[in-house]
Amino acid sequence: MFSPLLALLVACIVTLAQGNLDWLLLAIPSGRQLGILIRSLAISASAAAIDIILGVLITCACWGWSRRFAWLRWLPLVFIALPPYVHALAWNEILQPLSARWGAFLPVGEISSVWVMAMSLLPLGIGLALVGLESVTRPLVDAARISTDDQGVFWRVVLPLAAPLLAAGGGLIFLLDLLDYTVPSLFGVNVYALEIFAEFSSSSQPVRALLLSAPLLLIAFGVLFIGQNFLRRVAQFPVRKTSPWSSPPQWLSRFSFLQKIALVLWGLQGLVPLVTLVKLTLGGESWLTTLRLASGEFIFSFGIAGVAALLSLPLGWLAMDELNRYSRLDRLTAWLFLLPMAIPAPLVGIGLVTLWNRSIFDGFYASSAMPVLAALARFAPMAALVLVAQNRQVDSLLLDAAHVFQKNRWQSVWRVRLPLLLPGLVASASLVFALTLGELGATLIVVPPGHPTLTLRIYNYLHYGASDVVAGLCLAILLLVLAGGALSVYFWVLWSRRMTSLELE
Amino acid sequence: MTSIGIHHVSKTLGVVQVLQGFSLEVAEAARLVVLGESGSGKTTLLRLIAGLETPDEGEILLDGQPASRSDWILPPHQRNIGMVFQSPVLWPHMTVTENICFGASKLSRQERQRRSADLLSALGLDRLSRRYPHELSGGEARRVGLARALAPHPRLLLMDEPLTNLNPELVELSLAVIRAYLEATRPTLVYVTHDAQEAAAISSQVIRLAKRSAA
Predict the structure, then answer these.
(1) Cα–Cα distances in Å, from A370 out to A209, A373, B149?
(2) Which of A193, A281, A288, B106 sits 20 to 30 Å CA-CA off B127?
(3) Hey, are the CB atoms on B87 and A149 less than 8 Å from each other?
(4) Best interface-test mutation with A: which of B80, B81, B89 has the largest number of A CBs within 10 A?
(5) Which residues of chain A carry a pLDDT beneath 70?
């Protein structure tokens, strides 16, 4: 996971030692670069703020649902798996008229980018808001309800207690938005992550790309450093089956109205891609023909994503215990482990090229292993965070009992720990699979010649407009995501019922 | 001072029917002690009176006015109650004083501060006003929970085993504060405990709840 950055740092030291000290100026943004950096920060911060605010409002609205339907609040998380470019394609159909009418007066590209980025990561925003707000325990809420109305309880108790976790969640979304250029580039907006890729493309100098990315790395490392303690807490909070309110909260009408708007946007987040893609696909050539022509890319992309998902599990497992500790030294280890999340996608690809593009690694460099490595470098820390969350929910006494009665260590792992961690393993593998499927920034640089991934193919098509071919491919991904998500939810409900029945017994 | 009327109230939690057709009348300014073993529904009864739980059947009246039915509930903050919970449940982002003053927001700032200081002094906690809950011992947190319930001078006081896990000296001190408060402000009190001696120190009006089996 660290190899891309380490390889680049070594190359940087060697290059600077050779006398290219004037390249250091690249690390200090000025003029056009500074403008792009500020624009990138503004776009990412706006998208992250929208996601967290909508997430909070939607969570508040969900607390009014009856207990029978409360589990439905986790369902939209399925849409995390939908790649951002699918949202870009779908929303572009709606935003195009806006561009035509207001393009001369408003920064429509930037506004569209913010909106699409916010929509594509909204499920993550909802998920993080749910975890953050529902980490406040019911007794704390009950105690406050004795003295003030539910609105007051929310503002004075629930929100302040959840604020660190919400801020960490916002930081995570901010990083994901900041380090990828897929969506802004589709709306013709130049962002700093794209600038890194452009620098590497024009100069073929990995060190120049690294130096250029220094401000972005500094900001991203800082956000991660401030948020890592909270991020670990996000992962360590148990996912509760009930809301912190013993009875549905009563909101002020204005606040309820805002919640309703958020719920409508949540609905649109899923419906807009579905409806637009079906409309575009039906208006074009045979969908099956489109899928048959892209079958090679489908198989290759799903293979890459599948292998990355499987390999992320042992890595996540190894990191799980490390991230659960609390000492100052372990905090540093945890920060180091989460550090790859702060590396811009193009820089991961450039680092891997620097490391593996040598004659002795020819066979490996030109193989499908490179996109797998890129995916692992980017997403394995997230798999670990999910596993930490699941591990936190396992009663440590169950593991202690297993250690007492075990025949050997493997019996405990295989018969007790693995089944208890199974939902977390499935969730983290699914997350890595989904993120790898939509990965572009690093894959574009390391993919072997003649083997474009589905995302690359769609991305290239997208530059020529929203064709029925692109829509057909995106629709296939959307349906696969929904099917996979429905299976995951079904599996989770089954597992949850089994665990509940065991508890009652 | 609030009178309480509980009429044919039933409540099921999960698969356990905690209360079935339960009725009780508590007069204004009365001091009622509720005894019973674990799982007999003492805490559920207090939570129903507080409006933190909705009855499945029956009705609860406060001062003769409907407060809880299966389809409607008067919000807890509109019942003019103070409550000591089974565990201290102090809000971790507020200091001791802020925790105590939270429920007394209708009073002026000076009056809130004065009441908080008086209660902290009476309970032997005067040096802890600026501390956060994680800086308190279990016994200190429990006494802060007691001060928080008393500070707004509620008309109805609900206490759920407020002196559990306190050492004998602190039990005596806290009982003295509670008794002095009851004499001074005369609220209606419902006091849950499983300690017969503690019950006797509070009131002679005692009811005992029996444990029910699974529904």
Answers:
(1) 19, 5, 63
(2) B106
(3) no
(4) B89
(5) 1, 103-104, 229-242, 284-285, 321-334, 464-466, 492-493, 495-505
Asked whether the beta carbons of B187 and B155 are under 8 A apart, the reply is yes
Cα distance between residue A29 and residue A38, in whole Å: 10
Per the document, the length of chain B is 215
Same domain for B168 and B147, yes or no, is no
> Chain B interface residues facing chain A, Cβ-Cβ under 8 Å?
15, 47, 50-54, 73, 75-77, 81-83, 85, 87, 89, 91-93, 102-103, 105, 148, 152
3-state secondary structure of B68: strand
Neighbours of A368 (CB within 10 A): 14
Chain B residue nearest residue A138, CA to CA: B89
Handedness of CA A372, A374, A380, A383 (dihedral sign): negative
- Domain containing residue B212: 1-80+154-215
Task: Please indicate whether, in this complex, the C-beta atoms of B102 and A144 are within 8 angstroms of each other.
Answer: yes
Q: Which residues of chain A does B50 touch, with a Cβ-Cβ cutoff of 8 Å?
A: 146
Which helix (H) or strand (E) segment is B24 a member of? strand B16-26
- Sequence-ordered list of residues with C-beta below 8 angstroms from that of A127, at least 6 positions apart, any chain: A55, A74, A77, A80
Contacts of B91 in chain A (CB under 8 A): 140, 143-144, 157, 161
Q: Which residue has the tokens 């059947």?
A: B57
Please identify, among B153, B178, B204, the residue that sits at the C-terminal boundary of a domain.
Answer: B153
Note the pLDDT tens digit of each residue in A254-296. 999 999 999 999 988 888 888 888 887 777 667 787 778 778 8
The candidate with the shortest Cα–Cα distance to A432, out of A368, A386, A365, is A386
Looking at beta carbons, which residues of chain A come within 8 Å of B75? 145, 149-150, 250
Q: What residues does B26 pair with on adjacent strands? A: B4
**Contacts with A414 (C-beta within 8 Å, 6 or more apart), sequence order:** none
CATH of the domain at B8: 3.40.50.300
Q: Measured between CB atoms, does A67 come within 8 Å of chain B?
A: no
Mind listing the pLDDT tens digit for each residue in A397-451? Answer: 777 777 777 777 787 788 888 888 887 888 888 888 888 888 888 888 888 877 7
Is B68 in the same domain as B169?
A: yes
Helical residues (DSSP H) of chain B, grouped into ranges: 42-50, 96-101, 109-122, 138-150, 168-185, 196-202
ipTM comes to 0.82
State how many domains chain B has.
Answer: 2
Q: CB burial class (10 A; 0-12, 13-18, 19+) of residue A99? A: middle
Q: What would you measure as the largest C-alpha separation in chain B, in angstroms?
A: 52
Q: Is A139 part of the contact surface with chain B (CB cutoff 8 Å)?
A: yes
